[in-house]
Amino acid sequence: xxxxxxxxxxxxxxxxxxxxxxxxxxxxxxxxxxxxxxxxxxxxxxxxxxxxxxxxxxxxxxxxxxxxxxxxxxxxxxxxxxxxxxxxxxxxxxxxxxxxxxxxxxxxxxxxxxxxxxxxxxxxxxxxxxxxxxxxxxxxxxxxxxxxxxxxxxxxxxxxxxxxxxxxxxxxxxxxxxxxxxxxxxxxxxxxxxxxxxxxxxxxxxxxxxxxxxxxxxxxxxxxxxxxxxxxxxxxxxxxxxxxxxxxxxxxxxxxxxxxxxxxxxxxxxxxxxxxxxxxxxxxxxxxxxxxxxxx
Length: 296
Description:
Elements (H helix, E strand, L loop, with lengths): L1 H11 L10 E3 L4 E2 L13 E4 L1 H5 L2 H7 L17 H14 L3 H12 L7 H13 L15 H7 L1 E3 L2 E3 L4 H9 L3 E7 L14 E8 L9 E9 L4 H14 L3 E6 L2 E13 L6 E12 L4 H6 L3
Parallel strand pairs: 2-6
Antiparallel strand pairs: 1-3, 4-5, 6-7, 7-8, 9-10, 10-11
């Protein structure tokens, strides 16, 4: 995966937002995951250039998808015609980018995808948007790869999934997300560069201003500034060609891309299908040499 993923990072430079120019983070104080309390009195996003987002078709199409989902696990979505159209608009938009064209070519060479663009879009739809039951006891399909990874869900009072920076910024702007501080990284010191493209944070999230209950995400790692197509391509390649845990270089970052699947029935049939359960980055742990070096 290394060479393929590194190429994705290179190609995404054209559509990726630039730290310090298109967005600025305010990471403030760090904490361990088990530390309680709010270590950040100000929002996470100091600024985001909304004009830069609105000028990018894939970002606009992505934003339109975020309000299509029920947050609670076991509550099924009722997908409207308009929402189905929004999904197709998003898939069409990302397939126009160099990132997704490369992803398609790379998977075709590995015989993991058809060379036909229409067939590949159907594969992407199946991986990311085909609904399935996250909980066995659900009466109907209540989740999807896209909903979990990019939008987020709530189960037993805690937030699961929600690994996308655009969703975090959007919810914080609406007043629904309270940033609690960054998590001390394993690969770096206590202080984080404000211009990062990768962050590990803690936050709490509510379902609209009328919701008085804030559910917590103790630890969440997300890319920052990257395009929606970059993450779709990266996690699709990991799902089809990688392992559950993929220790790889992505641009300047050594990361562990976790990618887990879930087996569920195909509709009413007894045939089991493999669905994308979750995928997200983590900062890779120290190698033995790095651990020895960092003792001094």
